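Section 5: illustrative case.
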């Protein structure tokens, strides 16, 4: 399997976060590298994390990303989030390990005007 992505950068804008990263140093010798993003909402102490759930919107998508950037929208204001970016390939499902992920914790600030959809 590949190693973790590197140089993860997060940019928070009210209740959305942009993540950008660089490809892993090792792709595991395969060309079928993609990225999965895991979103967790955490307590003030960074513990008691739980999945973000269906209300969060990922653009272009959350799983099987080919590129090295993603936008996450519709987050709750004043909330701690931890995002994990996993580098995966065709052999990863058999053995995804913590060494394949890089993570960042951010805190959203107050919500701007919400667009009515």
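Designed sequence:
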């Amino acid at each position: 399997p590949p190693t973790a992505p590197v140089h993860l950068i997060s940019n928070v804008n009210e209740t959305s976060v942009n993540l950008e990263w660089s490809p892993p140093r090792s792709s595991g010798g395969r060309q079928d590298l993609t990225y999965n993003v895991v979103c967790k909402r955490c307590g003030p102490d960074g513990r008691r994390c739980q999945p973000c759930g269906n209300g969060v919107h990922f653009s272009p998508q959350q799983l099987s990303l080919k590129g090295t950037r993603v936008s996450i929208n519709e987050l709750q204001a004043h909330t701690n989030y931890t995002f994990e970016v996993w580098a995966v390939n065709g052999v990863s499902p058999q053995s995804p390990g913590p060494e394949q992920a890089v993570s960042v914790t951010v805190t959203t600030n107050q919500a701007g005007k919400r667009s009515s959809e």
